Amino acid sequence: MLTKISPRLTKLGNPAMAFLVGVGAAAAVGGAVVGTVFPQASASMSIFADQSNPLNAIIILIGTLSTLLYFHFGIRRKGSDDQISQRPAWLESVSTVGQFFIAVTFAALFSGVYLAAITALIERMSFIWNLIKDLIFS
């Protein structure tokens, strides 16, 4: 690493730098997979362990798979290059279901943000009203 200081010896430091960058990238990707992907997958699978409500498990399975398939952009080429390539019909229909689940999720998130903003507005208006009331009647 110290050879990176000198322009003449900079090539000698490249393997050490490559090793450090590789280890850093592996640690970042490994941490992301272990910290987010595995817990998300296990949380989705733990629903199937509870046999008391299989309808919820089926809805979550359909929602998860159709949402993931919505982001599948692999298409087959048909004929010459001037033709527009399209996804198979079954994938389009499953993607539509996934798009519905995404829309419902975004609607719930938006309504939560809107409700939080309205709550903050009401709290501020209540504070101002109480302040004015205390100034006038005190």
How does this model look, in words?
With about 140 residues, the chain is an all-alpha fold. It has one domain. Helix content is about 70%, strand content about 0%. It contains three helices and no strands. It has helices spanning about 15-45, 55-70, 90-135. The chain is extended and about 80 Å long. The termini are far apart.
Outline of this structure?
This protein has helices spanning 14-46, 54-70, 89-137. It is mostly helical and 138 residues long.
Name a few traits of the molecule.
single chain, 0% strand, 138 residues
Number of domains as seen in the coordinates: 1
Helix content: over 70%
- Cα-atom radius of gyration: 27 Å
SS-derived structural category? mainly alpha
Mean pLDDT: 85
Strand content: under 5%
Apparent shape? extended
Biggest β-sheet description:
none
Q: Count up the helices.
A: 3
Spatial separation of the terminal alpha carbons: 72 Å
The total strand number stands at 0
What is the succession of H and E elements? HHH
Low-pLDDT runs = none
What is this structure's SSE topology?
Layout: H1 14-46, H2 54-70, H3 89-137
